[in-house]
Amino acid sequence: MSELLSEPFFELKGSLFPLSVIHSSDLSVAGLQAALQQKLDQAPGFFHQAAMVIQLTPDHQTVDFNALKQLFQQLKLVLVGVAGASTEQKQLAQAAGLAVLRLGQDSKPLAPAPGSSGEARVEQVPMHTKVVEQNIRSGQQIYAKGADLIVRGAVGAGAEVIADGNIHIYGTLRGKAIAGASGDSTKRIFCQNLQAELVSIAGHYWLSDSLQGDFWNKAACIRMQDDSIAIGEL
Amino acid sequence: MAKIIVVTSGKGGVGKTTSSAAIGTGLALSGHKTVIVDFDIGLRNLDLIMGCERRVVYDFVNVINGEANLKQTLIKDKRVENLFILPASQTRDKDALTKEGVEKVLNELAKDFEFIICDSPAGIEAGAMMALYFADEAVVVTNPEVSSVRDSDRILGMLSSKSRRAERNEDAIKEHLLLTRYNPERVAKGEMLSVEDVQEILAIPLIGVIPESQAVLNASNSGQPVTLDQESDAGQAYLDTVSRLLGNHVDFRFLTVEKKGLLKRIFGG
């Protein structure tokens, strides 16, 4: 009996997922609809049923989360939660059935740009660098949030290195490397010896099967080229 | 100051208990007062390998719970001077070990012994974490095959992050790689990872290579630590390992295929 009961049928594990975070000074239904629709028109299909999070700031006074939820549903998007909520905003969001998420300290709220034309612009945020001095062992996970990641050792099979920026590995990459984790496809992965289980840039990924070839077991640079992963010499 | 050495691997069945017994015995043979502590609560094996299973009265958990003192519980080896065993409890499980309790027992042992060998259970759960938490040095026992190497890599990660030394930001645990069940013939045929392959992946210094040997099985079955069988290749390899642990430089042996002599070839080896 007890053996039957002890069989693992349920597990809770923490995982990291890339979520799109919306930064907008205007969170009215009409304002957001226009902005989102414009984005969707640029890349129809790409955002289909994509999970999204709204970044709140103290400037957002009254936000009708129920109405926003409906708007996302209409646009075939999934609003999963809010980030950076004040106590009041938190209550409202939770009442609307949204998750209240917390971003790390280094993510800055969008400053209201006086006199901006309202056009969507990608701000170039200066990247920090996280340096890891030793080998990363199987089962370990390193995330360089909003930063480049430099590993001075090897990344073992079953280990994961993740960065919003570029990843540099001065040893052998045997595990997984995920660069541009927040969606920036200009980021790259550099390693001294490529034997990876998986490489990913901005959500596009290749498994080790696809990596076999000229650069397997050699120094390599992995980047995005024409919407596809490309491997080249270091 | 006593040195606490954990013998660990992540994977089961690679030779942790055999190695704990052999290394502990070897240290005692070299004149160092040594105790081997069985951390495998509920799956007690060390007493069998050491051939003292009929002399177990009290155990580690009794000492932690204050039901017996160390003097009553420690089993003195009948063959080797300076060698003691602290047996695990067979009737309890790993949750019976608390950090405070283990620390108290280790502190008490440290007053009396030069070396405390902690024989870790397999896995990465509470029992194994408890065995490595207080360690100064670690012997990572690895077989030359991929799953064992990966599990050792995982345990190395734990050693550098989950130990007391890591939590207190002290010098890291000194890690040693011990390759067991090494078969140079199968390495030559490409059926087994070579010493170099394993070292390249794990990137820690090599302390010993124990050849695959019938002597190890015989030793386990008869309750004699293999280091006492000084005729055998495995016994000699373990003695070399102990010497290196003590800081001596010893060349590695048993790494290449032994060439069979003409007579052996004719009459069979």
TrEMBL record, chain A:
SUPFAM superfamilies to which the protein is assigned, alphabetical: Cell-division inhibitor MinC, C-terminal domain
GO biological process: cell morphogenesis; division septum assembly; regulation of cell division; regulation of cell septum assembly
Residue intervals of the Septum formation inhibitor MinC C-terminal domain: 131-231
Membrane-spanning ranges: none
Pfam families from the UniProt entry: MinC_C, MinC_N
InterPro entries cross-referenced by the UniProt entry: CAP/MinC_C, MinC, MinC_C_sf, MinC_N, Septum_form_inhib_MinC_C
Location of the Septum formation inhibitor MinC N-terminal domain: 10-78
Keywords: Cell cycle, Cell division, Septation
Functional description taken from the UniProt entry: Cell division inhibitor that blocks the formation of polar Z ring septums. Rapidly oscillates between the poles of the cell to destabilize FtsZ filaments that have formed before they mature into polar Z rings. Prevents FtsZ polymerization.
Subunit structure: Interacts with MinD and FtsZ.
Protein family membership: Belongs to the MinC family.
HAMAP family associated with the record: MinC (MF_00267)
Protein name: Probable septum site-determining protein MinC
Organism (species): Alkalimonas amylolytica
Gene that encodes the chain: minC
TrEMBL record, chain B:
Gene3D superfamilies recorded: P-loop containing nucleotide triphosphate hydrolases (3.40.50.300)
Keyword ATP-binding among UniProt keywords: yes
Domain of life: Bacteria
A GO biological process held by the record: negative regulation of cell division
Record-level Gene Ontology MF annotations: ATP binding; ATP hydrolysis activity
Alphabetical list of CDD domains matching this protein: MinD
Record InterPro entries: CobQ/CobB/MinD/ParA_Nub-bd_dom, MinD, MinD_FleN, P-loop_NTPase, ParA/MinD_ATPase
Protein residues bound to ATP: 11-18
Keyword Nucleotide-binding: yes
Keywords of the record: ATP-binding, Cell cycle, Cell division, Nucleotide-binding, Septation
Record domain CobQ/CobB/MinD/ParA nucleotide binding: where: 5-226
GO terms for cellular component: cytoplasmic side of plasma membrane; cytosol
Free-text function comment from the UniProt entry: ATPase required for the correct placement of the division site. Cell division inhibitors MinC and MinD act in concert to form an inhibitor capable of blocking formation of the polar Z ring septums. Rapidly oscillates between the poles of the cell to destabilize FtsZ filaments that have formed before they mature into polar Z rings.
Subunit: Interacts with MinC and FtsZ.
Family: Belongs to the ParA family. MinD subfamily.
Protein name: Septum site-determining protein MinD
